[in-house]
Amino acid sequence: MTNDEKIKELVKQRYGEIALLDKETAGCSCGTGCCSTEVYTMMSEDYSQLDGYNPDADLNLGCGLPTQFAKIKKGDVVIDLGSGAGNDCFVARAETGETGKVIGIDFTPAMIEKARTNAEKRGFNNVEFRQGDIENMPVNENVADVIVSNCVLNLVPNKPAVFSEIYRVLKVGGHFSISDIVIVGELPNKLQEAAEMYAGCVAGASQKNDYLLFIEQAGFKNITLQKETQILIPDDILKKYLTEKEIETYKANPSIIRSITVYAEKKGCCCSSDCC
To answer: Who wins on pLDDT, 233 or 211?
Structure first.
């Protein structure tokens, strides 16, 4: 088994366990595999005021509000990458309406089952959940008007492959809004090497400049940072991995870990150009 395969199995196992938990217990996942009193709000943001929000589908696993920034219109086809229990899909459905369609893709069977149950309870016939790897999406090309994702790409080993897939699946003129964790500077080695920190959205994060470069190299235009927030790891988590001196050094640069929401468009040919 390759290292990438090991990482995927780790993520599938951990998030399969989370799918079986209630919201309060599940919320301690994105940051560690244990429960810290501060982890619930370490990365997640408040969805409760957004149309379409349903608490049953909110496991506190995100690091932003991508659907709020995604410019979804009535009738759009929206795809959510790493859809979990369906939270962003249901918010997207409120934006795209009955004439639109929402497709959630998730790697974990237990999450797909939970999301489908949540959709069926509410009679959402235009919300569909598909199990699959977002490095190789179970979706045809040129399908989506909008793609959203919330704190998921940091869990994927091959991020350039995901952005290439996003480009393939978007219609010409389509766009994405993605919230994710990135790094600016050096993350301590002990945090980078911790399996729990990988499953908790930190150790698998890319350098911010590399992340934006992956988007550009995939062919996207009008790349825009819609939001950027500093993420602080609580002391009770840091103490699991670092000595007091290492914690002091780490805290000297508290803005290493950041949540970003980034927007970009798949541009087509201009009719005045030679490519048409």
So the answer is: 211
